[in-house]
């Protein structure tokens, strides 16, 4: 009960209502005490009028008048000279004097609390104004015991009424919280559980219908999240199916390329100079294709194999990439390739994976320039500092369209070339991240596009536990 929202509301409501009743109780008891004392003064004034009506009263009648008024003595001052008085023996000395004529609210509350906490039988003097302008002042002495008993009885009735009000108020608030908060929240929780059982089922996405603004905003946000999650799960399922198909194709393609590799090895014995120059490149290309097929067989695990880091000269690798792109461009002389790699620059990377990254970026740049029908240049440059190696691939093409920039490194969504799958940049970014680096788009405008690869020089620190 204490761990539920409605239970805590019930307890807090009861506590706050009781606190409010206590704040009301203290002034009420003080007011009751003042009214009680004022009533005793009025009765004493009526009793004194009997003395005014006759010159003298016998002792029995005087005692009866004082008993009915509930006091021991009465002093009524009608002018500066004459005083009318009724008196009887006082059992003990006067303990305190209270003047009702000029008491402040705080003083009345203080005197009332003092009366409640004092269990002793006390004799008190009370001074006040006579009613109906019947004199200058009236003064009585009385026993405090009956006053305290009446105050306690009144206080208990007030506390009982407060308890009833608290229970009724708490019950009403409990019912209201159940109806307006707890039930809608439970409905949202039930919907979340239903959606969790089958997140691919779009029919289980919540439809906002709460009347409370805050709860409706929560349902709207939940609807957006569930919609995105369902879409992502569907895309993941499609990717899994595609991965299974690609793995099968890669398996068969690997066998075909292995056979082609065997035939290409025989070209080394040819005496034709052109064949001798092209044969090693053909063998290297087929070997890379076989390795790519091997890597693609792991596509179902949605991960690339970890890079095999080794020191390698960057200039030779870039030259091989550009040579392959020149061959792919064929007789199209509109694209010019330029490399600005320091001859002695050696970095630590996986040669095959870095080749794939550079090949993807250079190929995209070449295709972007060729699509414009104008001449252009692809430039690969590099530098190093104390923390990282930096490789830049820049072109003078038309720049990337805005839609491609929004999802540039996301598979199937960041395609640049028309008809492209959008996998090239996603794979390149993943391979660079596997090296602990990053692939960034530095600029893309009407003057061209530039990508930057950052490969850290230092190895990651081991995690200690």
Automatic annotation (TrEMBL):
InterPro entries: 2C_sensor_his_kinase (IPR050980), HATPase_C_sf (IPR036890), HATPase_dom (IPR003594), His_kinase_dom (IPR005467), HisK_dim/P_dom (IPR003661), HisK_dim/P_sf (IPR036097), Sig_transdc_His_kin-like_C (IPR004358). It catalyses: ATP + protein L-histidine = ADP + protein N-phospho-L-histidine. It comes from the Bacteria. The chain crosses the membrane at residues 6-30, 158-181. GO terms for molecular function: kinase activity. Residues 215-242 form a coiled coil. It is found in: Cell membrane. Residues 248-459 form the Histidine kinase domain. CDD domains: HATPase. Keywords: ATP-binding, Cell membrane, Coiled coil, Kinase, Membrane, Nucleotide-binding, Phosphoprotein, Transferase, Transmembrane, Transmembrane helix. It is a multi-pass membrane protein. Its EC number is 2.7.13.3. Its main location: membrane. This is histidine kinase. It comes from Limimaricola variabilis. The lineage of its organism: Bacteria, Pseudomonadati, Pseudomonadota, Alphaproteobacteria, Rhodobacterales.
């Amino acid at each position: 009960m204490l761990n539920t929202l409605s239970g805590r509301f019930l307890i807090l409501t009861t506590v706050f209502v009781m606190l409010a009743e206590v704040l009301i109780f203290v002034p009420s008891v003080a007011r009751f005490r003042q009214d009680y004392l004022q009533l005793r003064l009025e009765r004493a004034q009526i009793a004194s009028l009997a003395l005014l009506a006759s010159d003298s009263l016998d002792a029995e009648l005087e005692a009866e008048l004082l008993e009915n008024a509930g006091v021991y003595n009465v002093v009524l001052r009608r002018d500066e000279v004459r005083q009318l008085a009724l008196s009887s023996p006082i059992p003990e000395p006067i303990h305190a004097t209270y003047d009702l004529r000029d008491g402040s609210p705080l003083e009345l509350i203080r005197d009332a609390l003092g009366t409640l906490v004092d269990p002793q039988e006390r004799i008190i003097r009370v001074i006040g104004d006579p009613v109906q302008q019947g004199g200058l002042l009236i003064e009585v002495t009385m026993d405090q015991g009956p006053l305290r008993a009446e105050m306690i009885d009144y206080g208990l009735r007030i506390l009982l009424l407060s308890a009833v009000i608290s229970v009724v108020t708490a019950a009403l608030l409990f019912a209201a919280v159940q109806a307006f908060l707890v039930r809608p929240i439970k409905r949202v929780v039930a919907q979340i559980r239903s959606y969790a059982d089958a997140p691919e089922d779009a029919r289980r996405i919540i439809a906002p219908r709460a009347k409370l603004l805050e709860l409706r905003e929560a349902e709207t946000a939940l609807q957006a999240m569930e919609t995105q999650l369902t879409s992502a799960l569907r895309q993941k399922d499609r990717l899994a199916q595609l991965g299974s198909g690609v793995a099968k194709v890669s398996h068969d393609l690997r066998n075909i390329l292995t056979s082609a590799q065997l035939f290409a090895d025989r070209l080394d014995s040819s005496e034709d100079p052109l064949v001798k120059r092209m044969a090693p490149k053909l063998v290297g290309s087929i070997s890379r294709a076989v390795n790519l097929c091997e890597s693609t067989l792991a596509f179902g695990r949605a991960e690339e194999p970890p890079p095999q880091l080794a020191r390698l000269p960057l200039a030779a690798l870039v030259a091989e990439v550009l040579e392959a792109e020149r061959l792919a461009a064929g007789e199209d002389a509109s694209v010019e390739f330029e490399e600005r790699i320091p001859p002695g620059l050696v970095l630590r990377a996986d040669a095959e994976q870095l080749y794939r990254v550079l090949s993807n970026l250079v190929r995209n740049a070449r295709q972007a320039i060729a699509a414009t029908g104008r001449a252009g240049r692809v430039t690969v440059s590099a530098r190093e500092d104390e923390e990282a190696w930096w490789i830049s691939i820049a072109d003078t093409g038309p720049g990337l369209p805005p839609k491609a920039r929004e999802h540039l490194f996301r598979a199937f969504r960041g395609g640049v070339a028309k008809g492209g799958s959008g996998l090239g940049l996603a794979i390149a970014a993943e391979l660079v991240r596997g090296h602990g680096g990053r692939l960034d788009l530095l600029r893309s405008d009407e003057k061209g596009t530039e990508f930057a690869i950052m490969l850290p020089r230092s190895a990651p620190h081991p995690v200690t536990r």
